[in-house]
């Protein structure tokens, strides 16, 4: 029973990660972000204590994502999946683990990074700043998009910064009425952070990579760190995610003209199609001599990345494609770029979209 409940918690964290990490849905700002565990009057004069729940959990999952008893699809873990599982287990075993607090941090942080406007840096210490500038310049030149696109970095350190955390709470937590209350709530959270080995250092709290119709792209440090732990070069991971999310902007721009193949009627199938097309277009850009001009070693690394981030939640509305499908989509983009290598011309976004639909049988 304990194993089943612990497995359920991992399933919940994994599903939350999938739903939030690359979601195209806007937040409803009328809905409050409120964590009752940190209700202000309760915490003003109290020291945070461990919840006492996680000590009873024990995980014995090794290969499949989920237990058969949970009626979830069996799927062999990729390296990325194993790293994620280790991160989730670390959270669950933390004596200060609390699911409501985890969700509060995750949603609060995503709202903040979605609406933040200001100076940015990429990577925990700005190590991807130059790469971000270079790749965005190349992407703007490569794709025929008529929109302003900008990139926000997401950092676990933001949840440990008193001023930034207070900004988040004041802006999006409807249970506080003013800046003073936001400070008090932030201080209560920072006390827990100080005692916990996972809050907010666990990469899970900056695992986002998503885009919005207004031109926003977001890449979280936690996702890059997780991919590095899974054996992917950090610079390749950053460039690939940026190129993938950039294509979603093309999907927004051409949403009035582009259609999903009619056989894809379920939300999970539509999501899978859009995500696999983004993998395909990213590979085309990364390989093309007028794009990122990546050499074969780096493209092989992108194939590895595409495979390892696949998921087998085929019924999920945010399904991104299985590991093999994602690698197939990347290989298809590479082959398209290679076929035009000598000529050097760049296909339009419309032509790339049409080619992907015409060659779907090579992906599935």
Topology:
Elements lengths: L1 H20 L18 H4 L35 H15 L5 H17 L13 H14 L7 E5 L7 H11 L6 H17 L13 E3 L4 E5 H9 L4 H20 L13 H21 L8 H13 L14 H17 L9 H10 L6
Summary of the model, kept short:
By secondary structure, this protein is mainly alpha-helical.
Distance N to C terminus:
38 Å
Mean pLDDT: 85
Total number of strands: 3
* Poorly predicted tracts of residues: 4-8, 25-48, 51-74
Please list the strands of the largest sheet in the order they lie side by side.
1-3-2
What's the structural domain tally? 1
Largest sheet: 3 strands, mixed
- Give the class from helix and strand content and strand pairing: mainly alpha
**How many helices in DSSP terms?**
13
Order of helices and strands: HHHHHEHHEEHHHHHH
Helix content: 40-55%
Task: Kindly provide the radius of gyration, computed on alpha-carbon positions and rounded to a whole number of angstroms.
Answer: 21 Å
Binned strand content: under 5%
Coarse morphology: globular
Give structural notes.
The chain has 364 residues and is mostly helical. The chain has one domain (2-362). The chain is 52% helix and 4% strand. The protein contains 13 helices and 3 strands. The chain has helices at 2-21, 40-43, 79-93, 99-115, 129-142, 162-172, 179-195, 221-229, 234-253, 267-287, 296-308, 323-339, 349-358, and strands at 150-154, 209-211, 216-220. A 3-stranded mixed beta sheet has the order 1-3-2, sandwiched between helices. Helix 5 packs parallel to helix 9 (234-253) and helix 6 (162-172) packs across helix 7. The longest helix is centred in the last third of the chain and has 21 residues, at 267-287. The chain is globular, with a radius of gyration of 21 Å.
């Amino acid at each position: 029973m304990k194993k089943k409940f612990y497995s359920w918690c991992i399933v919940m964290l994994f599903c939350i990660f999938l739903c939030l990490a690359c979601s195209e849905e806007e937040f409803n700002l009328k809905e409050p972000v409120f964590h009752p565990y940190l209700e202000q009057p309760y915490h003003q004069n109290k020291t945070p204590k461990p919840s006492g729940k996680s000590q009873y959990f024990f995980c014995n999952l090794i290969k499949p994502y989920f237990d058969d008893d949970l009626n979830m699809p069996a799927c062999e873990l990729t390296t990325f999946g194993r790293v994620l599982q280790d991160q989730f287990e670390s959270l669950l075993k933390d004596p200060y683990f609390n699911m409501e607090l985890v969700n509060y941090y995750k949603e609060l942080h995503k709202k903040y990074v979605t609406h933040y406007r200001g100076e940015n840096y990429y990577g925990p210490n700005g190590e991807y700043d130059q790469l971000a500038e270079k790749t965005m310049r190349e992407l703007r030149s490569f794709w025929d998009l008529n929109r302003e696109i900008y990139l926000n970095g997401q950092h676990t350190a933001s949840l440990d910064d008193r001023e930034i955390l207070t900004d988040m709470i004041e802006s999006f937590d409807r249970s506080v009425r003013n800046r003073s209350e936001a400070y008090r709530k932030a201080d209560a959270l920072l006390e827990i952070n100080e005692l916990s080995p996972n809050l907010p250092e666990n990469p899970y709290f900056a695992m986002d990579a998503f885009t919005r119709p207004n031109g926003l792209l977001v890449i979280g440090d936690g996702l890059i760190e997780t991919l590095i732990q899974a054996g992917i070069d950090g610079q390749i991971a950053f460039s690939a995610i940026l190129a993938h999310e950039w294509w979603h902007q093309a999907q927004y721009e051409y949403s009035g003209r582009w259609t999903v193949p009619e056989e894809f009627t379920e939300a999970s199938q539509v999501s899978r199609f859009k995500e696999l097309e983004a993998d395909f277009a990213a590979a085309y850009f990364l390989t093309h001599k007028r794009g990122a001009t990546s050499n074969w070693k780096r493209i092989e690394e992108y194939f590895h990345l595409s495979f390892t981030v696949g998921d087998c939640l085929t019924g999920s509305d945010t399904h991104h494609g299985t590991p093999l499908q994602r690698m197939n989509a990347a290989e298809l983009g590479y082959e398209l770029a290679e076929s035009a290598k000598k000529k050097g011309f760049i296909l339009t976004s419309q032509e790339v979209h049409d080619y992907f639909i015409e060659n779907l049988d090579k992906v599935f």
